[in-house]
Amino acid sequence: MGPVGTAAVRDGGAALPGGFWAAVRVWLEKPQVANRRLCGAAIEAEGTVLLGESEGGSPRLTAVPGGGTDEGPQGAAELSRLWREVSGHLPPSLTARGRPGSELRAVLRTLLPRARPAGPPAPPTKELVVQDVYSGIVTFLPLEENKEGKYQIKKCNTYEIQLTHIKDEEWSVSIVALSSEDWFSDGITYPKLAWLGNELLPKLAKWSVEQKHSEFRSTLSLISVAKYCKVYQDLKEKYKEMVKVWPEVTDPEKFVYEDVAIATYLLILWEEERKEKGLAKKQSFVDLGCGNGLLVHILSSEGHSGRGIDVRRRKIWDMYGPETHLEELSIMPGDSHLFPDTDWLIGNHSDELTPWIPVIAARSSYSCSYFVLPCCFFDFHGKYSRKQSKKTQYREYLDFVAEVGSVCGFHVEEDCLRIPSTKRVCLIGKNRTYPSTECALIDNQITRYIHNRQTCPVVACDRGVGFNHKDCSDVCKEAGSGLPENEMETSGRIWMPGFQPREKVEQIRNCAALPRDFVDDVVLNVANLLLNTVPQKSCSNTHGGNMNTWNQGESLSLREVAEHLNKETLRRLKSEYGGLQTLLKNNHQVFEVLNGRVHIRDWRKEKPSRKTKPEVKRCLSAEAYKTRLCWFFIHHPNGCALPSESCPYAHGTEELRQSKTIKKKKHTQC
């Protein structure tokens, strides 16, 4: 036995010992957050074990849904069998601590390696984890199968994570190798001892006192993690060529692998549904707001009949072939856009259609289900308005979309996807909360909810499902918007006459289309405001010339800057996404916006970006060098802080070079 490392922890907020066990749980369920060579872990089963019983006792077990096994009881049976096989070979340190009758928590997990760039992935590894809550110790026992098909402990790779209370607020978290002399490492499921001490230990110590409580479900909580890892690796390999031929301006690696991940999730979800409901045929689908159509292409290629609909055609659509069905069409929520023969409706970043998808699914047929991945915040009509300050806007919007699903009679489930996006929580409605005989009742409930959502005050709308129009007092009568109740219940062609679908031609509203003279005026006004603010910061100019100091100006908050602009300027900026901040960030040469404050950019302090490869940086710099006039040379009272030979911008028209188009997709060759 030998210590790998110890981290001192100071707990001033009563986080320990509970925080320690929460940190251990992260390492148990999500080892990939620390060990990037793992895809994840499947918790097969867990249960309570009593020390001192004959043959190690028979564990009281709880099967864990979503684990690596198809059947929960199978996982429980395997854990029980394993415990009987290994109980006589447990490390002495584990058995010596326990008193007869003391309880331990046993967890059986399978570590799932990530695919390697070359060659097949490493095989999954089973591990028995024993938690002694009384002593503050968790023991990790890797398992290996012998020739007889029985598991035995891989003693050379057993280790413990220990929590020790020193005094008062002082604690320590330690990792101890139970057999450090012959420790074996493959760098994946069996990490090196140095990695345990230098990488894992600091993370465990940090997690133990962070007391972070996520407002979202655990990642991939509704499906098998083991299946997900396998299917994802297969699909990623199958569709990796899409990255090379991607014709859109969006980042191919992000969008291709994100859609591969979403397709993986749906394929596993649908496979499980077929088993639950005894379905022989693969589910059909319609993707509303399908965008680039890649998700439709993957699902169709994997045997699911379906189509995608979007208001605007994309260039990549022509690359998929006739087997991938994509339509250019505006969806208006109403009787003419129902899908009675479709099993699933998909809303993957479906914007203004997001809250409507549960409604369309409910009214399409009793057997229609839905999957939505909300991104931008839309209500039934226009942008979603926040109503609660105690929640984040994202959490509040997810709750709203979930409420819509409940109103529509769905049992709404929530899960968190494993995708490269900050908006990765999905909502699923696949089972109904009412019998098919009550469809008309639910339809009237939906109608009232939508109508009240459009016309009633916030207090009334927050009361929940199926409240009466009388609750809205006289506000609805005075508002005059929407349809009368009797007309809404008889249901017209369009469910909400004021609904505005996305525009067919995407408008550029990132300040890039604003008139150049307008932008130049704003830039000059803001720069003068920063430069004239007192006291001014000045520093020596090391580049010679007639000036001895260069005015760096002061920093101001975006609010302070906005207060100095006239109303007409602010009105025009508000019509653009991001407004003033976007305009200032677009003018990267002049300004630097950090943490909501605006600064004059000092090019003497600029450092190359770590994210951009050096050869790419040189290539882009060479293409853009001296193709634009230097703003500081023309407008700054002290001129440019850099000499002409060091400044990437032209000091006068005589230095200007002809601009060349920079291709972002192939910037590995200069």
TrEMBL record:
<protein>
    <recommendedName>
        <fullName>tRNA (uracil-O(2)-)-methyltransferase</fullName>
        <ecNumber>2.1.1.211</ecNumber>
    </recommendedName>
</protein>
<keyword id="KW-0863">Zinc-finger</keyword>
<keyword id="KW-0479">Metal-binding</keyword>
<keyword id="KW-0862">Zinc</keyword>
<dbReference type="InterPro" id="IPR029063">
    <property type="entry name" value="SAM-dependent_MTases_sf"/>
</dbReference>
<keyword id="KW-0489">Methyltransferase</keyword>
<dbReference type="GO" id="GO:0141101">
    <property type="term" value="F:tRNA(Ser) (uridine(44)-2'-O-)-methyltransferase activity"/>
</dbReference>
<dbReference type="InterPro" id="IPR011671">
    <property type="entry name" value="tRNA_uracil_MeTrfase"/>
</dbReference>
<dbReference type="GO" id="GO:0008270">
    <property type="term" value="F:zinc ion binding"/>
</dbReference>
<comment type="similarity">
    <text>Belongs to the TRM44 family.</text>
</comment>
<feature type="region of interest" description="Disordered">
    <location>
        <begin position="54"/>
        <end position="75"/>
    </location>
</feature>
<comment type="function">
    <text>Probable adenosyl-L-methionine (AdoMet)-dependent tRNA (uracil-O(2)-)-methyltransferase.</text>
</comment>
<feature type="domain" description="C3H1-type">
    <location>
        <begin position="624"/>
        <end position="654"/>
    </location>
</feature>
<feature type="zinc finger region" description="C3H1-type">
    <location>
        <begin position="624"/>
        <end position="654"/>
    </location>
</feature>
<keyword id="KW-0963">Cytoplasm</keyword>
<keyword id="KW-0808">Transferase</keyword>
<dbReference type="InterPro" id="IPR000571">
    <property type="entry name" value="Znf_CCCH"/>
</dbReference>
<dbReference type="GO" id="GO:0030488">
    <property type="term" value="P:tRNA methylation"/>
</dbReference>
<comment type="function">
    <text>Adenosyl-L-methionine (AdoMet)-dependent tRNA (uracil-O(2)-)-methyltransferase.</text>
</comment>
<dbReference type="GO" id="GO:0005737">
    <property type="term" value="C:cytoplasm"/>
</dbReference>
<keyword id="KW-0819">tRNA processing</keyword>
<dbReference type="Pfam" id="PF07757">
    <property type="entry name" value="AdoMet_MTase"/>
</dbReference>
<keyword id="KW-0949">S-adenosyl-L-methionine</keyword>
